[in-house]
Amino acid sequence: MRDFTVLGIETSCDETAAAVVRGPQNAAIMSNVIRSQIDEHTEFGGVVPEIAARAHIEVLDRIVGEAMHEAGCTWDDIDAVAATAGPGLIGGVIVGLMTAKAIAMAAGKPLIAVNHLEGHALTARLTDDLPFPFLLLLVSGGHSQFLLVRGVGDYERLGTTIDDAIGEAFDKTAKLLGLPYPGGPAVEKMARQGDATRFRLPRPLLDRPGLDMSFAGLKTALRTQAKKLEPVDEQTVADLCAAFQRAVSDVLSARTKAALALFRERFPDTAPTIVVAGGVAANQEIRTALTQAADEAGARFVAPPMKLCTDNAAMIAWAGIEHMCLGPVDDMDVSPRPRWPLDARNSGVLGSGKKGAKV
Ligand code: KG4
Ligand code: ZN
After folding, report:
1. CATH number of this structure's domain 4-124+308-324
2. N or C: lower Cβ tally within 10 Å for the chain?
3. Does domain 132-306 have CATH number 3.30.420.40?
4. Ligand lying closest to the C-alpha of residue 315
């Protein structure tokens, strides 16, 4: 099979990113440019969609130019343009997809509309040459789910959060305790000085079978404990952070073991691998808990480098390459989608309103 060189564009949340990737045989990330918008959103304590979309418009041309320059590529060297077409904040998705369409049209290249979650799901095949099938645990600010990755375009969601994503729960907890945004790193830092046993927080849904998770109640329980002790001193904040992080780690560890058991039932002849992706994968306690859970289950644990675990465009370019290998790609009519479940058969957990199923 021949190699393809694909330009990828990612704008679905608060990172404006462009990358050039070659593969699948001699796979190489030729450039991977990311501009984070954290500074624009910090004062609001979270991502503001309208500000995000405007910021993407302002810098995307330059970021694409940098990615092409760093890769040492001209348009002649590019085989296709891939962009995130959803799910995500729709303003940003529109900016990225329309830019990709314009480039594809002007340069006469095929367009690939990539599902952002698929980008996360396939990254480990770029970094670790992983064969199908495998399990993916995606834990970011927008998503918390277990996916069975059977092949390109063949995904089954085994479980998901029924309320907040884990990163979101970290961010809300930080806000509640007066810690800065993004909350994950701030909570982790405080937790290092805390005693995880001083407060007892729930392990939501663990008394139920299945792989779904819930984190909103955990945050509420933490708020109740904090209110009782107001004004909270620094040690109490640290203890609350440690208790919260321990509860999340316990839930993820238990669900990971159950997911691996399910994988073994489905694929008795395949050695199980679990891949973790998303910003929350940066958390050391959670990483250790997941590594142990995989060890105990006799499974391989794969965590791509952090820069490829969090939102980036190399994963979008790589997903584009995987699609190019399968044949014809998208036409120019493809629309941006705020919601786009990877697993169309199993997407009803959060309900499906007028706009279709939520992620
Ligand atoms: O994957 P990501 O960069 O962006 C998307 O949400 O798509 O993930 C960002 C999320 C934020 O909610 C952030 O608080 C969380 O990941 N995060 C962490 C840590 N670093 C980032 N959560 C826990 N511990 C961390 N060290
Ligand atoms: Zn993401």
Report:
1. 3.30.420.40
2. N
3. yes
4. 2
- Whether the link from the prior residue into 328 is cis, omega within 30° of 0, is no
CB 188 near ligand 1, within 6 Å: yes
**Token pair recorded at residue 28:** 């190489």
- Looking at residue 347, its pLDDT comes to 56
Render pLDDT for 43-76 as a digit per residue (tens, 0 to 9): 887 888 988 899 999 999 999 999 999 999 999 9
Same fold, 4-124+308-324 and 132-306: yes
* 282 vs 278: CA distance, rounded Å: 8
How far is CA 258 from its chain centroid? 21
Do you find a cis peptide bond into 336, omega within 30 degrees of 0? Answer: no
Structure-token pair, residue 26: 């001699």
Segment 286-335, tens digit of pLDDT: 999 999 999 999 999 999 999 999 999 999 999 999 999 998 888 899 99
Residue 134 tokens, joined = 């495998």
- For residue range 197-207, list pLDDT tens digits in order: 999 999 999 99
Cβ–ligand 1 contact at 87 (below 6 Å): no
The domain segmentation of the chain, as residue ranges, is 4-124+308-324, 132-306
Joined together, the tokens standing for residue 146 give 């277990």
